[in-house]
Design a protein that fits this description.
There is one protein chain. This protein is mainly beta and about 350 residues long. The chain has a single domain, classed as Neuraminidase, CATH 2.120.10.30. It contains three helices and 25 strands. The two termini are about 45 Å apart.
Length: about 350
């Protein structure tokens, strides 16, 4: 009788394992073609500029300070440049962190974090509405300057903006109280909710680490996709109400998820943790990311980067080594657009890669 029970348990275990999909990491990612375009945007460092794809996906908006450039994907050229200080409109003082362009009516939404204001501007550069965002300071959160975390849609009644806790010097509070996304009403400006937080892997190390930013966020098909830059390969998917609806743990075996604390708070003496450098959704089930690792070889630092395509449906990752210090701006199921600075000239470069997924 005992043997029969044991046999049934073994069979149950085998059938249970058979139902679960296994992760398949680092399959070949094939680059079919590569094209480079010089962007005529003056002396612009991609780390300081912001990049947004227009609502219908035909244009890339590049902006730094109060200057904007419009790049047309189809013609592969800059079709318009704009200096907001030269148009007849009174804008809030302080830097402009984000700008969104809507093709339907050629309007703009401009975000000024120091004033907590969004200004909606029409085709004639006249102010349609000014929205003051309220409630964030009451819970010790502030807007994040790193990343392109500003999500606004003309069909929605809310705006979603990247945030973090203000107490970055107190890591226990910072790691436990930080929320990644804040939702505000576009009618009243009131804070509706915050959501997304550090996972347990990061919370275990109550010390600062050396990375570029803290989190990557993108939006697709009424879902937000959130990934910490270091320490954890997981991607969390939230709906518009801030509910966690799925979590995926793919990533890559080409980087380490070990976190290295800062040595005496000195960036130059510290080892940086491997990280996810940028991330964009090609579709609801396909994530395009790249990584960055800094390694010391013969007493000199060397940088290593991999481009990843993660299939969230079939739990497969495809990867290929690529040049470091490139930021992913946009991705489709056949193309990836990245930006970097020319290594010897004061030029911004757009790199367009056509790719395919290798054999499984």
């Amino acid at each position: 009788m005992k043997r029969l029970i044991l046999f049934e348990v073994v069979l149950l275990f085998i059938f249970s394992c058979g139902d679960k999909k296994l992760e398949n990491l680092d399959l070949p990612l094939e680059i079919i073609s590569s094209d480079t375009t010089f962007l005529s945007v003056g002396y612009t460092q991609y780390q300081n500029a912001k990049f947004h794809v227009s609502d219908l996906g035909n244009f890339l908006i590049i902006h730094q300070d109060r200057k904007l450039w419009t790049f047309h994907f189809k013609s592969n050229t800059i079709v318009k440049s704009l200096d907001l200080d030269t148009v007849p409109i009174v804008l809030p003082e302080g830097g402009m962190l984000h700008a969104r362009f809507f093709e339907k009516d050629s309007s703009l939404s401009l975000f000024f974090p120091q004033r907590s204001k969004i200004v909606n501007v029409d085709y004639h550069y006249e102010t349609v509405k000014e929205i003051e965002l309220k409630g964030l300071s009451d819970i010790d959160l502030t807007f994040v300057s790193k990343g392109d975390h500003f999500f606004i849609n003309q069909s929605l009644e809310s705006v979603y903006i990247g945030v973090m806790n203000i107490q970055s010097n107190n890591q226990e509070i910072f790691l436990n109280k930080t929320r990644f996304i804040a939702e505000f009403s576009l009618e009243t400006g009131e804070l509706i909710r915050t959501f997304g937080q550090f996972g347990e892997r990061r919370k275990k190390l109550m010390e600062r680490i050396l990375t570029e930013g803290i989190v990557l966020i993108d939006y697709n098909s009424e879902n937000f996709y959130v990934r910490e830059v270091a320490g954890d390969p997981a991607i969390s998917r939230f709906n518009l109400s801030g509910d966690l609806v799925a979590e995926y743990s793919l990533g890559t075996e080409k980087i380490s998820y070990v976190l290295y604390p800062l040595v005496n708070g000195d960036f130059f003496e510290s080892q940086s943790s491997d990280q996810f450098y940028s991330m964009k959704m090609a579709s609801k089930e396909r994530v395009v990311s790249n990584t960055l690792s800094r390694k010391k070889i013969n007493n000199k630092f060397a940088f290593e980067s991999y481009l990843l395509v993660e299939d969230l449906k079939d739990l497969k990752t495809y990867s290929v080594e690529t040049p470091a210090f490139q930021k992913i701006l946009h991705a489709t199921e056949s193309k990836i657009y990245l930006v970097s600075n020319h290594p010897t000239k004061e030029d911004l470069i757009l790199v367009t890669l056509e790719y395919s997924l290798g054999d499984t």
